[in-house]
Design brief:
395 residues; alpha/beta; seven-stranded mixed sheet; three-stranded antiparallel sheet; globular
């Protein structure tokens, strides 16, 4: 029998998608289900974005186009990043891709050789370790712990750097914790990257979804322009998940490698969606600030309500749209508790181990749903909480 490539045995899926599939099966059986497992805004792009896509199609913008992306969009992205992140990037250093995951994958493929070590946050997005393993690299986690407010510890990161370390992955605001890295932490990480000549992949997909203060991109620190790749896209900040639009901002010497891989994989991103993306970036209707304002209100209510659940301890996230709930006092594993929530309460959430071993005592909920839906979810959870309430009382 022919065998599957060995790399497939070390790559992993995503807990969110497996929970979603199980929840949809229960729905097909007639069960009522509240979906708080996926990181998908319940908003849609504004009318001007939809109209722009329709106009582009009507104008025949459905052809092959520039591999790295149309010039107008790359220029608009450069202006957008200057306006919203106070960073200066050249349009020619931006490469479009059909989604951030592919941007992440191709960036890692361009920079990593088998045996190279990759530092990444745990808990963190499951793709970081999975992609590294699939490429024959060695993922090395650094812990994000509650005692440190889920901030990376630069001293721990430094202790894990070896002669084989080639890349440092950062994610602020972070999935699943919602942590926005402080200036001091990012500055220290940047200094380590310069000292040890590391590539930095800065996953900034949630950069526009923060709840106070100015967002600081890793590209703003000394010595980072020549070693940092920003991964970003339109799914979260512009509620364009199904449009599949991501991009990488890369140093000039990396861009040809990204373009070469694009030529050998997806050829180009759909032309008409790129014209719509230009309109999304201009955001004449202020859709992104309006959406973030609504997320902020939901955050306040949802965190307050979750902390009413016996055994749940939920800090307020600084960014993104996830709550990271410590369930240690329930006396249950996160997997067992999520099973009860799904099958008995009809609430889909993700056990924290799906994001790495450091997440064992946590559950992630998305609050990218309406206030009413979030309130109903907590009421359902409270109804099944007697399953673990006795354990809470004994602690």
């Amino acid at each position: 029998m022919r065998s599957i490539a060995s790399r497939m045995s070390v790559m992993t899926g995503e807990g969110a998608l497996s929970i979603f599939a199980h929840a949809k099966e229960l729905e097909a059986q007639g069960r009522s289900m509240i979906h708080l497992e996926l990181g998908e805004p319940d908003f849609h792009p504004g009318k001007s974005v939809i109209d722009s896509a329709a106009k582009a199609l009507a104008d025949g913008k459905d052809r092959y186009c520039a591999v790295a992306g149309i010039s107008a969009l790359r220029e608009e992205l450069a202006a957008y990043l200057a306006r919203t992140r106070n960073i200066s990037v050249a349009a020619e250093n931006i490469v479009l891709a059909p989604g951030c995951k592919l941007s992440l994958f191709l960036a890692m493929m361009a920079l990593l050789d088998p045996g190279d070590e990759v530092l990444y946050p745990d808990p963190g997005f499951p793709g970081y370790a999975s992609i590294a393993l699939g490429l024959g690299a060695v993922p090395v986690p650094f812990m994000l712990s509650a005692r440190n407010h889920f901030q990376p510890d630069p001293a721990e990161v430094a202790s894990k750097i070896t002669p084989r370390t080639r890349m440092l992955l950062t994610n602020s605001p972070g999935n699943p914790t919602g942590t926005v890295y402080t200036d001091a932490v990012q500055r220290a990480l940047a200094e380590l990257a310069v000292k040890h000549n590391l590539w930095v992949l800065s996953d900034e997909i949630y950069a526009r979804i923060i709840y106070g203060g100015e967002y600081l991109s890793m590209l703003r620190y000394p010595g980072m322009h020549e070693r940092t790749l920003i991964i970003d896209g339109f799914s979260k900040s512009f509620a364009m998940t199904g449009w599949r639009l991501g991009y990488t901002v890369a140093p000039p010497e990396v861009v040809p490698a990204l373009v070469m891989m694009a030529m050998n994989s997806y050829t180009c991103v759909a032309e008409f969606t790129q014209y719509a993306a230009i309109e999304a970036l201009r955001d004449r209707e202020c859709n992104t600030p309006r959406m973030v304002g609504e997320f902020a209100r939901r955050r306040e209510q949802f965190v307050r309500d979750l902390n009413r659940v016996p055994g749940f301890h939920c800090p307020q996230p600084d960014g993104a749209f996830y709550t990271w709930v410590n369930i240690t006092d329930t006396g249950m594993t996160a997997e067992e508790l999520c099973r009860i929530l799904l099958e008995d309460a009809g609430v889909a959430a993700i056990p924290g181990a799906a994001f790495g071993p450091a997440g064992n005592d946590f559950i992630r909920f998305s609050f990218a749903s309406s206030m009413a839906t979030l309130h109903e979810a907590v009421e359902r959870i409270l109804k099944v909480s007697p399953a673990w309430e006795a354990s809470v009382a004994s602690r």
